[in-house]
Amino acid sequence: MKNQPFKHQYPRLLTIAGSDSGGGAGIQADLKTFAALGCYGMTAITALTAQNTTGVRAIHGVPPSMLRDQIDAVLEDIGVDAVKIGMLHSPEVVRTVAEAIDRHGLQRVVLDPVMVATSGAVLIDSPAIMALVKELFGRAVLVTPNLDEAALLVGRPLTSEADMALAARELLAKGARAVLIKGGHLAGDVVCDLLMERGGQPYWMRAPRIATANTHGTGCTLSSAIAAHLALGASLVDAVDSARLFVRGALDAGASVKTGAGSGPLNHGFAPQPMRLMAL
Fold first, then answer.
1. Considering 84, 215, 221, 264, which one is annotated as catalytic?
2. Which of 113, 156, 182, 276 gives the lowest tally of CB atoms within 10 Å of its CB?
């Protein structure tokens, strides 16, 4: 019996990020998100972390050469439709990723500048932050800092929507092509996020706050969902809107579930999609 000719491929997503041993954030959250949205996930691990719902105990960085080999291995064979970048803990790792973007001509790249864990642990040093801005802002189609990360990037606290708008413009001036500042850390019953593209107008997205202590990995999940929708052909605005709906559904579905003693994970599998097929 002859093999049938190939007619399809899966939407292919690569996450370049750290591993969360607790399973709620990092590459674990990314893979769960890709699968829930019907996409095929691949990984290039930048660091191993020992963490759970209460905090980060240790971080062990992967050598840049091993990170490069992971990226090259999957892209040279399988290829990719979109990339999500998460935790990059050193300038050398940042440069390794930037070189890989250029080497493989990667286009749909979403950069989540992971700097502070949900527990409050700082995951990146100042030289790495500087390298991140210089090397990756202009290579990504979108940068997705939360309020604390945006504050680190602009060097001051952000306590209002006006602060968010000013910070977004500053990040665009630093080289970002588009920025999504997540305002979930602002006080109030309404959560506001701001999407701003270079040369465009502010696009505010507001929704009622979901009452839950299980928010570990929310940013990882959002950036991965945006990358997945970009891989499926959505525009940037539509990808962000669809990703926010997915995250809200996952937050709501996981709100009543106890996992660990701290900030638990989202319910990524609340409405799983079958694996999508794209014509070759």
1. 215
2. 156
Q: Is residue 58 part of a domain?
A: yes
CATH code: domain of residue 71: 3.40.1190.20
What is the count of structural domains for the chain?
Answer: 1
Neighbours of 142 (CB within 10 A): 23
Is residue 32 annotated as a catalytic residue, yes or no?
A: no
215 catalytic? Reply is yes
- List, in sequence order, every residue forming a beta bridge with 82; answer none if it has no partner: 13
Out of 182, 183, 221, 264, which one is annotated catalytic?
A: 182
Residue 144 appears among annotated catalytic residues: no
Q: Are 112 and 82 in contact (CB under 8 A)?
A: no
Q: What range defines the domain where residue 202 resides?
A: 11-255
Residue 59 covered by a domain: yes
Q: What is the pLDDT of residue 21?
A: 98
Helix or strand holding residue 85 (H, E): strand 82-85
23, 86, 183, 219: which one is catalytic? 219
Is residue 275 situated within a structural domain?
Answer: no
What is the predicted pLDDT for the residue at 115? 83
> What's the pLDDT at 5?
87
Sites in the chain below the pLDDT cut of 50: none
Known active-site residue 218? yes
Given the residues 183, 218, 221, 254, the one annotated as active site? 218
pLDDT for position 1: 53
Q: Which of 84, 220, 254, 264 is catalytic?
A: 220
User: Residue 252 has what pLDDT?
Assistant: 98
**Which residue bears the tokens 């999957």?**
74
Distance CA(174)–CA(170), nearest Å, equals: 6
Q: According to the model, what pLDDT value does residue 4 have?
A: 79
Which residue is associated with the tokens 């989202």?
266
Tens-digit pLDDT profile for residues 217-266: 999 999 999 999 999 999 999 999 999 999 999 999 999 999 999 999 99
Pair 264, 250: CB distance under 8 Å: no
